[in-house]
Structure formats: structure tokens, C-alpha cells
């Protein structure tokens, strides 16, 4: 029993630093009615308009209903692909600041977007940066958090 408890305690830091979840947009979260307001601050385009990010905000949970939608062209088919970036538990972040988002290009990995965000930590809203990498050459999206 003690070994099992010790193993669980070892896992706690990993749970606290879980990476964001990137999934397809086939979800109630990715519904157009969830686009954040004001609309002019809820969308941004990059890579000559080929990559778009949209801030989504659900009413519940009140602490953390913010999610990010990423659209980009499929490198093989040509039609639009859509990915949802959210927390590992899919509860969401407290907010995203798309206006302050920064973009950089790394030839090895693709377009790297750095988005200021806030996340509820159980008692307060902590600032963090969500980095989203869009590799259009292979049609993949990756996300990480920096605190």
C-alpha cells in the first residue's frame, strides 16, 4: 500500500504540468456560437491568411471556458483542417489574448504562435503562454504551455 501511495505522489507533478490537448474540432466546444466577443478581437490570421486562430468561450465552467480553434489548409487535400487546443481535461483556460499573440516561423517545425493566456489554478488566475505550432507541410498542430 505504501508503494502505491508513493507512486501516486510521484505522479502529482506530472498532472500539474499536463500539456494542452490538441484534438479535432468535432466537438460541442468548436461551435460557432462559442466565438468570443468582441468578434474583432476573437480572430487572427497568420501566414498570409492561411492559418487562422479563433478564441472560443463557453459560459460554463465560469472559471475556465476558453478554448482555441486553429484552421489551416490540408497539405494533401487542399480543404481546411481544424484543430481545437484546450487543457488536458478539456475544461479550458480562463482566457486568451489573441490581440497580443506573436508569430514566428521555424523552418524545421513550422509556424509558432505564442498566445498570452490565463488559467485558473484552484485559487487564482495564473498567467501563462500557450505555444501552438502549425506544421503545414505535414498537417500537424502541437501545443505546449510556458509558465
Question: What do you see in this structure?
Answer:
Keywords: Signal. This is DUF2195 family protein. It comes from Pelagovum pacificum. The protein contains one helix and ten strands. With 147 residues, it is mostly beta strands. The longest helix is centred in the first third of the chain and has 15 residues. The chain is globular. The N and C termini lie far apart (34 Å). The N terminus is likely disordered.
Topology of this structure?
Blueprint: H1 2-16, E1 21-24, E2 43-46, E3 51-57, E4 66-73, E5 80-86, E6 95-96, E7 102-106, E8 110-120, E9 125-135, E10 140-146
Please give a handful of descriptors for the protein shown.
147 residues, mainly beta, 5-stranded antiparallel sheet, 10 strands, DUF2195 family protein, signal
Proportion in helices: 10-25%
Order of helices and strands: HEEEEEEEEEE
Mean pLDDT: 90
Please tell me what the overall shape is. Answer: globular
Briefly characterize the structure.
It comes from Pelagovum pacificum. This protein is mainly beta and 147 residues long.
